[in-house]
Design brief:
The chain is mainly alpha-helical. The chain is built from 16 helices and two strands.
Length: about 350
Amino acid sequence: MDKTNGNRIRWIDAARGLAMCMIVFGHAIPGGMVKQFFYSFHVPVFFFLSGLLFRGGREKSFWDFLKKEFRAVLVPYYLAALISIGIYQLFGKMAQASLHVSAKRGSIFLQLLGMLYGNCKTGYMKWNLPLWFLPCLFAVSLLGWAVDRLLILPSFKKEEKQRFLCFLAFIMVGTGIVLTDFCRIRLLPFGLETGIRMFPFFLLGMIFREEKERLLEYGPGIKIVVLLVTFLICVYASSQNRLVLYHKDRYGKEGLFFLGAVSGIIFVIFLGKLLEGQTWLSYIGQHTLVILLFHKFPILFCQVIFSPIGKLLKRNQTFVGVMVSGISILCCLMLPVFKKKFLDKRKGL
């Protein structure tokens, strides 16, 4: 049985923590083989875990589900976006000059439109680019709701559900490739084109959600072998492919991308199972939302204010990237603590 903390499953929190550390590290340095390795699978891991835990079709109505997802995903997105736009309008020019980058700034009105449209390919989400993930996840969740409603129909037996999900995942792989590689569709609301590319990984999570306990009951020896094999496969796939950029729908060679993504998912979930007893990692996994929302600002602070560190990051110095990533994560983890203390203080008045 999986060890749980309340209603949480520790190995899933550990897997989330690992994937989030990879995302933050990848945003700290501009390139390098370590980043290329992490980028080959870190975003699919989150969509897989979202599908693994998804139970949206059990809601009484679509509107109940919509309200729940809006509160859980879009409300934090909009709040963080408004804060980010304010910071960007005040300090964006200084950051761009220090980092020698150009961006489509526009007026506050255009920035707000970019926030509402939720697709970073417009160029009007430079105020906090990692936030593209949340509207995309919201769009994928809506697709997941429709699939989950079909699966609870009495006519579907368990074996038929698995076959249906496998068939649908295969269809969605082809649909995504046609949309982004052949039709060159780039600007659907909420990054739906990227959501369609990520939906097969979400479906993969749904396929394994009934088997997630049995899947990881193997002994430590088998788990280590699986870790080693999937790690080597992922290293090969990522080294032979280009740097995958999900927010731009740049996946390189499709076969290598899916090979790296699937092997990377297996690698992370088995590693999460082995590391589930690491409290610090599970704690990061429990707070991935706040880290996603605000980790970019401590990184930018290090890049802009501390120029020697910024120069080392530009050179893809792995140790410095790990250090800055750790600082960024720690800063983000302080926010829930401050919020809790502030709320407790207000309640005590």
